[in-house]
């Protein structure tokens, strides 16, 4: 592989005009496609194989024309202190508002609070339910404005009015901190390279890659029903890996220049060596992201595939556009150790003339770890173990309006409904009774209602509402606990258990659905898929790393270190978002269960990123070992050449991920924090401390591989042995067999 990539790097360097033109054309094409594409459609959950989804599908079949997937809005009214919503003036205001809402072209129905028993017992709060023919993402702006205008007119009449539901669903905003993250990345690059031009190359190529990826997602969003969160996550991961992959190749290019090679040759060798590591690191990320398909939740699969596509683009750009831009930059990109004049390079060169090179921080740290491997290993493992303790209290759920910032009208409507009707009113359960196989459907409906009324935790049960055929009915159940609570989950299971008894008695099937039940089923499905997903992803990556490192113990150590870092990161997420530690600093206004897809998503993404650092750092060590250095010295050499760059890459990735903590979307905020802290644990504790300590303890055994397996595995030549052989035909005979 190294030889092929070497030729590709030299070709891109020579044909830089052609390469740059191709990528600019792709960016333009993707941008035009995104600009001309229709807006994204509905991105609601679809959970094949779950009871909630079967009930939802049954509703669409038995209750045609009711727009089961249409947007909803709850316009919540509150009377001033000392007054009631039943006062004549307030009643007239509400009825006028209901009439205005009913005139909308996309409105399916509007329920009057006074005829639909939607006034609180104390008479201070009422709500009007609005159903639309289309989903929240497909609503026209004029319809949303009409909803807001009607609410404002009621406010002008003296009422407090807030709007809940998904009718006002907006595209999540990431906030200014995302720009700060990119700015931090730029500063780190300048410090790392000592050159503004060299620092600008990774940023430029990463932005082009993300631009192509996100624009392509936007162009396909309507056709593939991709949600707005998909593009944000693709941007998050694409920026991080795009900068890192380019950083590694530019860094290797400068190292090759420092060895006296011509620029075209240096570009070829940089792509042949560091580029090989980029390919395999990118493959592990892609495997982890595409592997999310095993969960069989279409939304999660689409998120993973879209992010994986952006990673593939980042790899291709690093392999082709970086050498092309290096050709344009010419002598403005300095060899390693030489800074530009703007940053004091000439002065540094003058002052350092004749002095021996001082060991860098990476060399000094690696030497310390090699001398004290047991102490470093124990300290690292105990520290990560302590950080992982909160993960034992992990509670899973999905965000609702109750997790929105208090500045939003959706959150204020949620709080008003809880105040007036109880916390369970925001998460009603819809029980669907399919009595098509029953001899007496009406009796079956009545028995289901009576069974539910006798369950613990039920506040109210509406009478059965049958369809025209009379073979299916819906029953709304109001719990006495909030939607994301354990008590509500227990109630859903209790209704399903009672439904099994009803089916044996009457032949009618009882199904529970609604957003709350859907969230519970999603969490359960994710929990069930976590172990198979781990086995698949870690297993495939383990085999890939055996090929890369030609070792059994090094990939095993990499996988175990990853498990430590991801558990510690989950512990940090629980401490902040569930327990409330540092919640004010992170902008978390409402603590609660951790998003149910967080563990499996973090496992996928963090595993891929963790293997990045493993590949980049350990390939340098193996490169030194196979060329004759002792195992301990190879560890030090690997850190001498790779620690500075890996540190910069980790800081950049942390800055990019942390930039998304400012998002208005709670899911994006949580993922941004989780990935940032996971990168910190994995890069600085696992890869920088535990990995060299373990390798120092293992010695030559770390690079052991059975001879039969060595012969069976393909030689991918990540270290560039073939390139060294081109310089010295005798080089092959000098390589250490491992």
Short description:
With 738 residues, this protein is an alpha+beta fold.
Features:
4-stranded antiparallel sheet; disordered C terminus; elongated; alpha+beta; 25 helices; 5-stranded antiparallel sheet; 738 residues
Structure commentary:
It is a single chain. With 738 residues, this protein is α+β, with helices and mostly antiparallel strands. It contains 25 helices and eleven strands. Strands 6, 7, 8, 9 and 10 form a five-stranded antiparallel β-sheet that branches. It has a four-stranded antiparallel β-sheet with strand order 2-3-1-4, with helices on both faces. The chain has a two-stranded parallel sheet with strand order 5-11. The radius of gyration is 30 Å and the shape is elongated. The model is unreliable at 341-356 and 731-738 (pLDDT under 50).
Can you give the helix content as a percent range?
55-70%
Q: Quickly count the helices.
A: 25
Q: Could you say which structural class the secondary elements and strand pairing correspond to?
A: alpha+beta
N-C termini distance: 19 Å
Strand proportion, as a percent range, falls in 5-15%
Provide the residue-averaged pLDDT: 82
SSE diagram, text form:
Blueprint (H helix, E strand, L loop, with lengths): L1 H13 L1 H21 L14 H12 L9 E7 L9 H15 L4 E5 L13 E8 L8 H16 L3 E6 L11 H17 L2 H29 L3 H31 L4 H28 L7 H32 L15 H7 L9 H11 L1 H16 L7 E2 L11 H13 L7 E6 L6 H13 L4 E4 L3 E2 L5 E8 L6 H21 L2 E5 L1 H35 L3 H26 L4 H4 L7 E2 L2 H29 L4 H28 L7 H33 L8 H6 L8 H7 L3 H4 L4
Parallel strand pairs: 5-11
Antiparallel strand pairs: 1-3, 1-4, 2-3, 6-9, 6-10, 7-9, 8-9
Helix pairs in contact: 1-2, 1-9, 1-10, 2-7, 2-10, 4-5, 6-7, 6-21, 7-8, 7-10, 8-9, 8-10, 8-21, 9-10, 9-17, 9-20, 12-21, 13-18, 13-22, 15-16, 17-18, 17-20, 18-20, 18-22, 20-21, 20-22, 21-22
